[in-house]
Structure formats: structure tokens, C-alpha cells
Specification:
Length: 480
């Protein structure tokens, strides 16, 4: 299995196509380190007895032992283990683990390329299976670039004033395609080894050119990664686990980029729009299932901070605190339960891949998204104002005059050391008052698709008419 050192070594050798705040940088730039540390955890934990059972799995393709983050789900158990792995591993990084996008895109491609190959006779599935084997053998870190700029939201891709506001094929060549466009908000693109590109939405027959899917190394010619990097508070006095991990988000630009045939899984040819639409929806579905693992993990973290700060402040047993903690537990466990239900109600596609139940994935994701700011509200309520006004570390840890004074006046319950109070508030401040905390909050709402997308998916599948019939029956209204 690949080690985190090997991952970093390969990453640092990639061409410097990352741009941060006016600079073109290599991947050993210190601003990317926090995100790289997150990904290293996905390599390190294969040797960890706590994770081994969850992260190691036999490839259905090669029968070799591989990392679950490159696996195609073959059973209910696979879906359950992916969900549990995601929930558990996110506790260690204090946020997103970044590898779900890659594995979610692989699973969606496994289904759609099989259908597309059958119906178009282009060897999309054969190409995909070759890529899959490479990814499994190399334990490749991938991201998924789905979200287009989208321009005027009221217009379809082919109606935009600038047709490039959705990524599209601009030229078909004998040996590949040329693509133009961009993808916004792509998590971890500048610390990934490969980028998988998929369409963003359902497409119509005028929109075949937008039905494009491919995978390329992240430093491919003609690809520009414009990146913003966030990290938690860096502590010179007292490095703490959560402070070690960070986040990177990237606008990925494809400037007339050539993609060779062997890496193309949908080429924007006539009639391919339907596959593009299915792929967009299926990636979103897998991703929403992943959210039933990572979002309960975020709630676990918020719940832990809320309970501990209440304990330190001497209010943990108060009724209103207990009620708020119960609310947080209900959100975490209901979202988790929806992922379990989605796994048990999953269907096996003809190609062998398990597809989680769409209703349960969507209601779970919706419940998580709807509650995220409410969870932060609870934490802010129970913490008081200190997360926003916490003195800087140099003052708190000062050994002369100011440090001892601050250590005296930060005290809560007598038996809790001042230093522990400070450390907890530092973490809560990261969650509530830092730029990375803000990024996670917006991700809690929009990651995996805006809330309205979940509403659309939920309403499309639910038999509302059947419920109207119940209402009529109970009310004595004739059903005509
Ligand atoms: C931190 C973070 C990480 C992310 N990571 C990834 C990633 O790794 N890969 C990836 O592909 N994407 C990623 N995303 C993108 C995410 O999926 C999108 O943000 C989401 O789909 C919303 O798209 P948008 O940002 O363009 O917002 P918009 O679509 O513009 O939404 C804004 C509002 O407009 C509404 N709206 C939009 N279109 C219409 C319409 N036609 N009719 C009516 N209302 C409409 C929406 O419902 C919403 O209320 C990430 C997002 C965040 C915040």
C-alpha cells in the first residue's frame, strides 16, 4: 500500500500549476500543508488497528487488497463501511477528509460508462476499468470537478451568453477531445493526484457538447488550479491536533485542454446528453451518501465542544443544556440512520455496483444541511462570547505578567486548569470565528448540491398523490 511519504514525494514532483493569491507555486508550498496532512491520514490509517477493518477491502477487479477510497461498492456492507469510515476518520481531522469526492465519482462512472458503452459502442467502460485498476494499484488521490460556473442561473447551458460557462467539448479529434471551461469550488484539487471531471446537471438534446467526463493528472497541460487555502490557528506554543489540518478549495480552469481518448469517459458526441445528465445525478447521489458519514462527524465534534464547554462552565446538568445536547444527538444520529437505510435499501446495478437509495440519501443530506448553522448557533450559545474575544496565545502563555493574569481570569470550574479552558476555547474559536470554520459552514449547506436540489430529488421520487388519497379517504372525500 502507498505510504503518506510516497504520496507527498509524488505530489511535490508535480508541475507547478497551482496559483495562490498572485503567486504560481509548487505543491510543497506551506499553505497547502494542512490539506496534505488530511490526505496523509488516509494512507497512515491502513496500519492503524482501529481503522484497518474499515479501510482495507478486496478489489472486485484484481482481488488485491486496496484502500476503500478507491473501491467500487459491491454490497450493502461496502456502503455501510464507507459511511462508517468517513464518520470515524473525520473525527481525527476535525473536518472534511477529501477522498470521498474521488471514490464517489469512480462509483458513478462505473455505472454510467457501462451503460454508455452498451448504447454507443464507444469503449467508455473499458477505458474506465483501466483507469480504475491504475487508481487501485497506486491508491490515487482524486477529486471530482463537477460544479460549473453556470452563469445566469435561469438559463440552460446552451442558452448562456457565453457558452463556456459550462465546461464543453470545443473540438473532436481523432485521438481525443479539446475541452474549454472551468469548475468552481473544487475541494482538494491542488493536493490531488488526479481530477475527475463530470457534468453538473441534467442535459437536453441541444446540449451534447456539455456531456463530458474524463480524468487527468492534476498538473496536466492546459489546466490551471487557482486555489485558496485555509488553516486553523497555528500554535507556536502548543501545537494541537486540529490545528495541524487545513482545507484547500480551487477554481479549476481548462483552457482549450487536450484530453486523449483513453482518458475520456463521455466525449460530448451526438446523443450523449442523457448519459451526462445521469452521471451528474449519480455522482451527487453517492456524494450525498458520503455526507451521511461526514456530517454526523461534524455534529459529533460540535456536540463534543458544546458538552465540554458546558462542563467546564458548570452548567452541563442544566435542563436547557441537556435539551440542546439531545437536539444535536438527534441530528447526528438521524442523518447517520438515513445513510444506513440508504445502504440497506440500495439496488445492485447490472454492472455490479451498489447504488444507495436516493430517497434516504437526499432526506439525510437535507436534514444535515438544514441544521448546520443551527448546530453552530447552539455551540455559540453554550460557549458565551469568549470564542470571539479570546486573547492571543503569546499573551495567554506569557510567563511574566500578562500570562498569569489571563490564566487567573479565564478560570471557570475550580478543578479545570486554566490552560485546558484556553485550549478548548481555541478549538471553539476555530469552529465559530475562523475563516476555515466559515468554509465548513457554507460547505455544510451547499456541498453535494444546494438544498433545493435535494428538494427536487425528494419530491420527484415521493408519491405525494398517494398521500392525498389517504387524506381524501380519512376525510370522506370521493376519489374521482
Ligand atoms: C466548501 C465547498 C466545497 C465544495 N466542493 C466541491 C467539489 O469538490 N466538487 C464540486 O464539483 N463542487 C463542490 N462544491 C460545489 C457545490 O456543489 C455547489 O456550491 C452547489 O452545488 C451550489 O452551486 P453554486 O455554488 O453555484 O450555487 P448556486 O447554484 O448559484 O446556488 C445559489 C442559490 O441559487 C439557487 N438556484 C440556482 N439555480 C437555480 C435555478 N435554476 N432556479 C432556481 N434557483 C436556483 C440555489 O437553489 C441557491 O439557493 C463545493 C461547495 C462548497 C461551498
Amino acid at each position: 500500500m502507498k505510504t503518506s511519504d510516497q504520496y507527498k514525494e509524488q505530489l511535490y514532483q508535480m508541475k507547478p500549476n497551482v496559483y495562490i493569491n498572485g503567486e504560481q507555486v509548487a505543491r510543497d508550498d506551506s499553505r497547502l500543508a494542512g490539506a496534505i496532512n488530511v490526505l496523509c491520514k488516509t494512507f497512515d490509517c491502513v496500519d492503524d488497528p482501529e481503522f484497518k477493518e474499515l479501510i482495507l477491502v478486496k478489489s472486485h477487479l484484481t482481488k488485491k487488497t486496496i484502500n476503500r477510497f478507491t473501491h467500487i461498492h459491491q454490497s450493502v456492507d461496502d456502503l455501510l463501511k464507507k459511511q462508517d469510515l468517513t464518520r470515524e476518520i473525520c473525527h481525527f481531522t476535525g473536518g472534511c477528509i477529501f477522498r470521498c469526492m474521488g471514490v464517489d465519482a469512480l462509483n458513478a462512472l462505473s455505472v454510467i460508462t457501462a451503460r454508455a458503452e452498451m448504447m454507443t459502442e464507444r469503449p467508455y467502460n473499458q477505458r474506465f476499468l483501466k483507469l480504475l485498476q491504475d487508481w487501485q494499484d497506486n491508491d490515487t488521490v482524486g477529486c471530482c470537478a463537477q460544479t460549473d460556473p453556470k452563469g445566469d442561473r435561469s438559463l440552460r447551458p446552451h442558452q448562456q451568453a457565453d457558452p463556456d460557462l459550462y465546461l464543453r467539448v470545443v473540438e473532436h479529434k481523432e485521438d481525443g477531445i479539446v475541452v474549454r471551461g472551468a469548475k468552481h469550488h473544487i475541494t482538494a484539487a491542488s493536493v490531488a493526484e488526479e481530477i475527475i471531471v463530470t457534468p453538473t446537471r441534467f442535459l437536453t438534446s441541444e446540449e451534447d457538447e456539455y456531456a463530458v467526463a474524463f480524468a487527468i493528472p492534476a498538473d496536466w497541460e492546459g489546466v490551471y488550479l487557482v486555489t485558496r487555502a485555509e488553516s486553523k490557528r497555528q500554535s507556536e506554543f502548543d501545537p494541537y491536533p486540529a490545528g495541524y489540518f487545513g482545507d484547500v478549495e480551487t477554481t479549476v480552469v481548462f483552457d482549450d485542454t487536450f484530453i486523449p481518448n483513453e482518458r475520456v469517459f463521455l466525449g460530448g458526441y451526438e446523443g450523449e446528453h442523457q448519459f451526462g445528465g445521469w452521471l451528474a445525478l449519480l455522482f451527487a447521489l453517492y456524494h450525498r451518501h458520503s455526507y451521511t458519514g461526514c456530517k454526523p462527524s461534524s455534529t459529533d465534534i460540535i456536540l463534543g465542544y458544546s458538552a465540554l464547554v458546558s462542563e467546564y462552565n458548570g452548567i452541563e446538568e442544566k435542563k436547557h443544556v441537556q435539551s440542546k445536547l439531545a437536539d444535536l444527538i438527534s441530528v447526528a444520529e438521524l442523518v447517520y440512520a438515513s445513510g444506513i437505510a440508504a445502504a440497506y435499501k440500495a439496488t445492485k446495478d447490472e454492472c455490479g455496483t451498489m447504488i444507495p437509495d436516493p430517497m434516504f440519501c437526499n432526506v439525510g443530506r437535507k436534514h444535515a444541511g438544514k441544521n448546520y448553522y443551527h448546530e453552530l448557533d447552539t455551540l455559540a450559545d453554550l460557549s458565551g462570547g469568549l470564542p470571539a474575544t479570546l486573547p492571543f496565545e503569546k499573551d495567554f502563555f506569557d510567563e511574566e505578567k500578562i500570562g498569569p493574569l489571563l490564566q487567573k481570569y479565564i478560570k471557570r470550574k475550580a478543578d479545570v486548569p486554566a490552560e485546558d479552558v484556553y485550549k478548548l476555547y481555541r478549538s471553539i474559536s476555530d469552529a465559530l470565528c475562523s475563516s476555515i470554520g466559515g468554509v465548513f459552514a457554507v460547505a455544510g449547506v451547499h456541498g453535494g448540491g444546494s438544498p433545493v436540489m435535494e428538494d427536487i430529488a425528494i419530491l420527484k421520487q415521493y408519491d405525494v398523490d398517494a398521500r392525498k388519497k389517504i387524506a381524501k379517504y380519512l376525510s370522506g372525500i370521493k376519489d374521482t
